[in-house]
Amino acid sequence: MYDEILPNLIKKNETKAVLLIADGIGGTTVNGHTELEAARTPNLDELAKQSSLGLHYPVGYGITPGSGPGHLGLFGYDPIRYQIGRGVLEALGSGMEVVRGDLAVRGNFATIENGKITDRRAGRIPTEKCAELVQKIRENLPDVEGIEFDIKAARDYRFAVVFHDERLKDAVEDADPQQTGLPPRPAAARDEDSELSAKIINVFIEKVTEILKNERPANTCLIRGAANSPDIVLFEKRYGMKPQGIAVYPMYKGLARLVGMETPSGLETLEQEIERLQNSYDDFDFHFFHFKYTDSAGEDGDFDRKVAMIEKFDTAIPDILALKPDVLVITGDHSTPSSLRLHSWHPVPLLINGEFAFSDSAARFTEREAAEKGIIGHIPATAIMMYILANCGRLEKFGA
Amino acid sequence: MYDEILPNLIKKNETKAVLLIADGIGGTTVNGHTELEAARTPNLDELAKQSSLGLHYPVGYGITPGSGPGHLGLFGYDPIRYQIGRGVLEALGSGMEVVRGDLAVRGNFATIENGKITDRRAGRIPTEKCAELVQKIRENLPDVEGIEFDIKAARDYRFAVVFHDERLKDAVEDADPQQTGLPPRPAAARDEDSELSAKIINVFIEKVTEILKNERPANTCLIRGAANSPDIVLFEKRYGMKPQGIAVYPMYKGLARLVGMETPSGLETLEQEIERLQNSYDDFDFHFFHFKYTDSAGEDGDFDRKVAMIEKFDTAIPDILALKPDVLVITGDHSTPSSLRLHSWHPVPLLINGEFAFSDSAARFTEREAAEKGIIGHIPATAIMMYILANCGRLEKFGA
């Protein structure tokens, strides 16, 4: 946001901010109440009384965000301008590194017989078999025409590949005939700059098919969703704050790394995430902290479990407040109403706590309180980083 | 705002609008209350009950505006698009005219010895000495290579110069070595169009140094912040309303003149400002009325004095209402919370009164009432002029 003037406004100081994300925390009413309204949240209630509340819309009015755009917006990058391609998301979700200049693609193991694709998913081979085949490829294919790559199994028959070469551009059609009974369709470049990418993908498929020639049913692969890492200014350069991303799931760690955050590995529980925050608090200026299970419960359509996960999230608040961050922001990357069983477009409740944040009359961290009594109003997600910087005293005055 | 369609929408009638600005009036909570909440404001309260309330953000989310951007936004000009350079602000703040085509610069008197700058502020000479040196320059330098200029002393060792020539463009590096012990650094153009400006500035410095050769410690000058007046469509042309700006301080009169408002001189008190409004009410369609002291008290960190200044401001309301303006808008150019002692990013309360303004449930002119009960919601400052025009019946229907 305000990309044109932001670089001239950023200044540094010793403040620290925590951005606490409960994935999919917003909801919509079921019998008159949302999950947040139904939950017992004494810590969030107490904090809400001393904070500014409002609602944010992650991408835009009515737009349901995926996790990628949802988080990019929270990090202050316009998710419509900076789109994260499918290949990059698959790679991040598989726990791979994707950095500027990389080309990431999604792969399907598939079956070819007599020159025709007979199964686009290779009989939906199990994840273990997929991992075995990926290992075989890794051992037999050190590079593609001199270009290094990483490959990693995802779920079932799917895998991801990241090619490391700045010359590889992503305007490439899928190497996928889309239906069975047709011959393989080679990758084709949509522009001149992407011809090398198409060639490398086609050589990769050819080599993989050779390596797997004695396998059944997975004896070839399809490649889709070629995508470069978005060309963004990394978080620390953009904001002057050294950031870390504390998360359990690979997707969120990957999104954090995409903007240049350090991401500790090996965290599996909320307790471990809190412990990490405590132990590394002094080493960073900005802590993005991700809690997943509010979203999972919403996607399962389980109102009561989402309530329980919100109550679990609530228990983390005192330990985080004990660190006395200069600014604490609590929100979600999108809403996931359990009635919908999906991510949704509903605005997400937002709380900003800090010495100079207006203490409004909202007495609970709920959608309704935020809308009725919140001083912040409705803002785009990309405004949140601006408010974090402002409340941290990290923005110069604009103009004299 | 809506620059593309606005010219086709403007129509004229006999309505009159008053834009009443209490500088820095917004605040944030201290022990649960803002200065506006703590103040006794019977007149504002009564008016709020019959008006529309809301909040505006002067430049953008989280951005703290200087007075220049703050006022440009109120006048309906996008403050990010129309940036007012340092030289122009210094000139306006010194009470000088700056019009389209001018090039304004800030000057420092400095000390040069044996070809090196030994003091960038000439021992911080007092304002009186500065004025004396400026007078000497004025007497001895009628023009610079035929280009006319005005020069005026500012505070201490600082002065401002406005060169009047449309050929002078402002892409010029500061003529300032930034540190002592170095030789003077001539102004350098950053593009071809600005080469004449660099030359004129360098000749000006050379002549000044000659004129001051027997002075100590101020025997040369540095020139910084070269800036053209922003290329804007003047207020009356843009809105079809003949405007005046009633203000005590040079900066606000200067900002008003920048957009083409007439600005009476010699006003020193709120009472004199009101008297001027009364006496000239029929001569203009639009009256910008500036009250300074809410901001001054906020910048001094004095909660109680800011409360007192708000109460003083409140006493002006009946006299202004007695003029029966068709539209009265009350707001600030930004917030200045006394807890922060600075301008801030907090949204500013806004009141719109007029025959067709929605009378919402807000019963006081405070940040909280505006957020909780205001019909206007949160809007950018540039929207305020649109609402003034609309409530004045000065905008045609858009489309049939």
Map the helices and strands.
The structure is a homodimer of 400-residue chains.
Chain A: H1 6-9, E1 17-22, H2 35-38, H3 42-49, E2 52-57, H4 67-74, H5 86-93, E3 102-113, E4 116-119, H6 127-140, E5 149-153, E6 158-164, H7 195-211, E7 220-228, H8 235-239, E8 243-246, H9 250-258, H10 270-280, E9 286-291, H11 293-299, H12 303-315, H13 317-321, E10 327-331, E11 348-354, H14 367-373, E12 377-380, H15 383-391
Helix pairs in contact in A: 4-9, 5-9, 11-12
Low-confidence stretches of chain A: none
Q: Sheet bearing the most strands of chain A, described?
A: 7 strands, mixed
Oligomeric grouping of the chains: homodimer
In the CATH hierarchy, the third-tier topology of the largest domain in chain A is known as Alkaline Phosphatase, subunit A
Query: For the terminal residues of chain A, how far apart are their CA atoms?
Result: 21 Å
Helix content of chain A: 25-40%
Task: Write down how many β-strands of chain A occur, each being a DSSP E stretch of 2 or more residues.
Answer: 12
- String of helices and strands of chain A: HEHHEHHEEHEEHEHEHHEHHHEEHEH
In the CATH classification, which architecture of the largest domain in chain A applies? 3-Layer(aba) Sandwich
Name of the CATH homologous superfamily of the largest domain in chain A: Alkaline Phosphatase, subunit A
| Helix and strand composition category of chain A | alpha/beta
Tally of DSSP helical segments of chain A: 15
Strand order, main sheet of chain A: write it out. 8-9-1-10-11-2-12
Which two chains have the most extensive interface, and how many residues on each?
Answer: A-B, 34 and 38 residues
CATH class of the largest domain in chain A: Alpha Beta
Radius of gyration of chain A equals: 23 Å
Strand content of chain A: 15-25%
